[in-house]
Amino acid sequence: MANPAWTDLPEAEAVFSRVRPRLFGVAYRMMGTVAEAEDAVQETWLRWQDADRAAVTDPASFLMTIVTRICLNVVQSARARHETYIGPWLPEPVDTTADPALGAERGAALELATLMLLERLAPPERAAYILREAFDYPYEQIAETVGVSVPNARQLVSRARKRLTTRRVSPVSDADQDRLLRAFVNAARSGDLDALEEILAEDVVSYTDGNGARNAAQIPVAGRTTVAKFVRAFRNRLWPGTTLRWITANGRPAVLIQHNGSAAAFLTIAASEGAIDQVLWVLAPDKLMKIAAAQQR
């Protein structure tokens, strides 16, 4: 007998709407851009309409499997596009002020620095890690979703965790990140080299996502003294006449740098043990436009 709960289209739409934030959460983490995540969610909706819904016993798991497999197919082509990107590619920052967990039960695997590391993983590793860390999926469900055995699902998550292990063994709290970010901005605006070096880790790396935008560094800048001098060097080009909008992006403190009401740059950091490990700038116009538009809603 058909299950009346979601065989009718209005009920199927209601079920989908309840699960949609979680679908977007996994899709965004997999692909790193809002547009591609929304496309994956829309494709999931189309497949849900065409599915034999009477045979589905767990709609949420069914839909999560669909969106994950769609993302697995898309990730390879996305990786190829990133290879032709001008300069470093960073995931698109998203405003999480109104939705701190981005539709997930847990806010894991959402920070920009973590999403950058996820780019290094093979697609099945990335999917398994996200399902486990961000959504607390049991290994049996991960295995079914990714299409592997349960032991292989455990191996995928284990390998992903090892590959994501960095020197950031103790990420700072949001309060400490906010303090370090504000200190960095103050030192950067004033050009205080000593103050910059005081809060930067010895092996700090600065990444600028500009995709060819003017004044965007096309290679990462590494090392405490080098990054401090780099930041001071463009002080007069970036900061005069700007206003700062302090926001929460990807679950962490960030700042939108605005000039005459328009976004000029997005800035966040990754830090551990009281020092900044990574400085992450976004100057690419399309990404800036989207994060700025989110702030105006």
- Average residue pLDDT: 90
Helix content: 40-55%
Order of helices and strands: HHHHHHHHHEEHHEEEEH
User: Which fold does the CATH topology of the largest domain refer to?
Assistant: Butyryl-CoA Dehydrogenase, subunit A, domain 3
Assign the CATH class of the largest domain.
Mainly Alpha
Q: Please work out how many helical segments DSSP would assign.
A: 12
Spatial order of the strands in the main sheet? Answer: 2-1-6-5-4-3
- Major sheet attributes: 6 strands, mixed
Distance between the termini: 45 Å
InterPro entries: ECF_Sigma-70_Domain, NTF2-like_dom_sf, RNA_pol_sigma-70_dom, RNA_pol_sigma-70_ECF, RNA_pol_sigma70_r2, RNA_pol_sigma70_r4_t2, RNA_pol_sigma_r2, RNA_pol_sigma_r3/r4-like
Subunit structure: Interacts transiently with the RNA polymerase catalytic core formed by RpoA, RpoB, RpoC and RpoZ (2 alpha, 1 beta, 1 beta' and 1 omega subunit) to form the RNA polymerase holoenzyme that can initiate transcription.
GO molecular function, one term: sigma factor activity
Family: Belongs to the sigma-70 factor family. ECF subfamily.
